[in-house]
Amino acid sequence: MDKLLELENLHVSFQTYGGEVKAVRGVSFTLEKGESLAIVGESGSGKSVTSKAVMRLLPNKIGSIKEGSIRFEGKDLAKATEREMEKIRGSEISMIFQDPMTSLNPTMTIGKQIMEGLRKHQNMNKSEAKERSINLLKLVGIPNPELRVDEYPHQFSGGMRQRVVIAIALACNPKVLIADEPTTALDVTIQAQILDLMRDLQDKTGTAIILITHDLGVVANLAQRVAVMYGGMIVETGTADEIFYKPKHPYTWGLLASMPKINSDSKELLAIPGTPPDLMNPPKGCPFAARCPHAMEVCIDHMPDATDVSSTHKAACWLLDERAPKVEPPEAAVVGGAR
Amino acid sequence: MLRYIAKRVFSMFLTLLIIATITFFLMKLLPGSPFNNQEKLTESQRFALNEKYGLNDPVPVQYINYLGKLAQGDLGYTFQYDGRTVNSMISNGIGPSATIGAEAILFGTLIGLILGIAAALKHNSVIDYGAMVVAVFGIAIPSFVFAGLLQYYVGVKLGWLPVAFWNGPEYHILPAFSLSVGVIATVARFMRTEMLEILGTDYILMARSKGISKNAVILKHCVRNSMIPIITILGPLSIGLITGTLVIENIFAIPGLGEQFVKSINLNDYPVIMGTTLFYSFLLITIILVVDILYGIIDPRIRVAGGKS
Ligand SMILES: Nc1ncnc2c1ncn2[C@@H]1O[C@H](COP(=O)(O)OP(=O)(O)OP(=O)(O)O)[C@@H](O)[C@H]1O
Ligand code: SF4
Ligand SMILES: [Mg+2]
User: Fold this and answer.
1) What is the C-alpha to C-alpha distance for residues B211 and B6, in angstroms, rounded to an integer?
2) Whole-number Å distance between alpha carbons of A27 and A7
3) pTM to 2 decimals?
4) Ligand 2: which atom is nearest the Cα of residue A286?
5) Are A214 and A181 spatial neighbours (Cβ–Cβ below 8 Å)?
6) Is position B206 within any domain?
7) In chain A, which residues have their Cβ closer than 8 Å to the Cβ of B210?
8) Which atom of ligand 2 is nearest to the CA of A235?
9) Domain, as residue range, for B42
């Protein structure tokens, strides 16, 4: 196995007026070369914070890594200096953000925005960088790249802008691409196109992708492995098949049940009742206990350890303890059955 | 864009015509004649003078005559000095006025930008609070108060700089600085708000995720974009400066347009009052037009919209 990125016991906190928000509380995962890993979870579960921590782009002063390590090719990014990070950002690890309408500078031509990274990391001169920018635009499927390279973001549609953003992110052939909800802000048809593009580019470039989303449909399309996040922790990880067909954690069941099913007669979506935990005073035990239909006494006071289900599949739930009662996932969470 | 400019220039002349008309009739409504104050004049002398300057004609005739000359750029003769044109008075006075005006806006914008940027980058620090206290005082306290304070402390007590008059570069410093305080304050506040907003945008995060150093991101993406809206406030700021010069020139006894204007009002010198008012209006409208066009050129979003309309 070629471990590219390895997070271990990562803790991230924000100092706010109300107190310390413990947004990420002990996240561990690995990403291998060329692999695609999806991180799924509800809003506020800490997905974006985790990815910003990897890039070391947490808001200065208030956000900080409290504990843990982020090993990238053996080097701990959690302890890297700003100088070292500047060399890694954009060239080894890059990032795409959720809203393509706001992630491009409105007063700079897209060509200049692509060239910035190239000139910094690959020492290209202006004309080489421009040449490469045009090629990149072609690669992400933008027609007339020679003309469009000199245009401004507002002259592009949302989907086209996201293609530009992808071109920027891939400009220097990074080893890791973190895509934070890359399609959430787009129309459904455009979403599919962007996902196709990403898969296509991954085949071509071999870039490892961390795909952040709360849409399991997106995951099924793109990811080989899935990490399910809740309340600042990863509650279950496994291959896409394991998560979709043999989920073990009640929160994953809830997510699967709330996924719209294409062939199902019932139009109703089963949203998980309740609200996520307060990260200022996180629960001592299982973060999902307050909303879990199977919660037991032990869940409230004791954090469940991650239990191996298979060599690739882990879940942190007391139901996996041998003393626990046997509980079957609800009908709605069975992906194969409902389809 | 050209059609847009043509339209704007046309409406500019219409505005000037309206201003000319209003000023003309307001003048006529004012009590007193230019020669009232000269008590030594006999009735017949006064009549002769009125005749000479066309003040005995019916008002509509005076109005038509006035507009006719105006169309040729002729603002008429002053009543104060025999045979001097208003045009020559304006061109004499404009030098010092334009100089301190330009100095104030350049200096004020520069210092304002620096303060605003520093405040935003050191958000919620001593620098931030300090800059904002300066800004609040700068906006709240009128420039003539600063002028008086500076004259007294820097001019009289310390004796570092001349208290008044207009005889060389060192005479510019106090009046230009007094005028610029408002500009500093406004620009600083505006720049700080813009910077803070842009620092929080996704595209700044995106730029940093490319590996560009923080300082380069701040300079190339943040400062640059924050300065674009500053251009829009330069219009109103210049207008404020023009009214500011009226007072400041009097305080520092600078032989500029403002000082002349105030003097002409005291002497009921209609042609100079009207001429100067028109000149000021022309200046203001031109500044606003130039600022709008500049904004269109600098901001690509507007550039395209303007091109299509
Ligand atoms: N700058 C910040 N200051 C204080 N708290 C923050 C800040 N950024 C994030 N948080 C907190 O961290 C937690 C996790 O946020 P995060 O953005 O990672 O969620 P997410 O999983 O990405 O959700 P979403 O799907 O909405 O993007 C949230 O509870 C949020 O309130
Ligand atoms: S540990 Fe308990 S509360 Fe948490 S998910 Fe499992 S059963 Fe539910
Ligand atoms: Mg997020």
Assistant:
1) 46
2) 7
3) 0.82
4) 4
5) yes
6) yes
7) 89-90, 94, 116-117, 120, 168, 171
8) 5
9) 1-85+269-309
